[in-house]
DNA sequence: CGCTTCGCGCAACCGAAGGTTGCTTGAGTG
DNA sequence: CACTCAAGCAACCTTCGGTTGCGCGAAGCG
């Protein structure tokens, strides 16, 4: 079921660039738009925008240090996002396994009836 | 690390509407653009486009039956997508837990030195 | 058999999001 | 004090999710 926030978190981690940014932040423990952009295939501006998005959904917080703006992960919110990932994955996985097993069972029982398809 | 295909799968399951469609296909075992659109907040056309995307990345295959076009999940590819989800989630989770524990350890040891931040 | 119906695919259009370039501003540093 | 370098802002482009409107062709029914 999960809450609606789901969507924000998902769209945040759904973007490949943002995913890589989260990855880097998680690994480095923090960074600026410029430092992140050095290892990403996009410009500093794009990174800044993504950081803005991540900040809005609470996945990072910003700490201005001198003329630099250091962004760090919000552990709690990030953990929530990860949990959501796992949840969806797990539920899909479970259902997939169920129907796969059912299909196998049917095949084993009926052996040769490929023309049988239950319409609607 | 995972392969590059990652990205296609991710962008496919990253969209909330597509996620719901996959959900429905998984539950119903198949469906047409029209039937799916009946239970989605978008038009048939949008659903058709999404089905096109899913088909291009191999998550579904289409079976034309008379004038209807029945789409069904590709179990293998779908399983791969799910696996990717789990992988990313798990790796993030692991790292998160590590740094969380480290942080706790530092706090416990040094008690009061919040100004310490490793730059670069 | 021919007409109607219903589902599909195609094309045009729209708004939002990701990305780029260019500029300005302001904190550190020589 | 002059210079440098990171941030932030604004304008613009392209892609994507979504809509409306259209025409076609297969089923269904008189």
TrEMBL record, chains A, B:
Matches recorded under Gene3D superfamilies: Winged helix-like DNA-binding domain superfamily/Winged helix DNA-binding domain (1.10.10.10)
Keyword Transcription: no
A molecular function (GO) term: DNA-binding transcription factor activity
Record-linked CDD domains: HTH_ARSR (cd00090)
InterPro entries the record matches: ArsR-like_HTH, HTH_ArsR_DNA-bd_dom, TAT_signal, WH-like_DNA-bd_sf, WH_DNA-bd_sf
Ligase recorded as keyword: no
Superkingdom to which the source organism belongs: Bacteria
Residues of the HTH arsR-type domain: 1-93
Pfam families for the chain: HTH_20 (PF12840)
Keywords for this protein: DNA-binding
Protein name: ArsR family transcriptional regulator
Organism annotation: Cryobacterium flavum
Organism lineage: Bacteria, Bacillati, Actinomycetota, Actinomycetes, Micrococcales
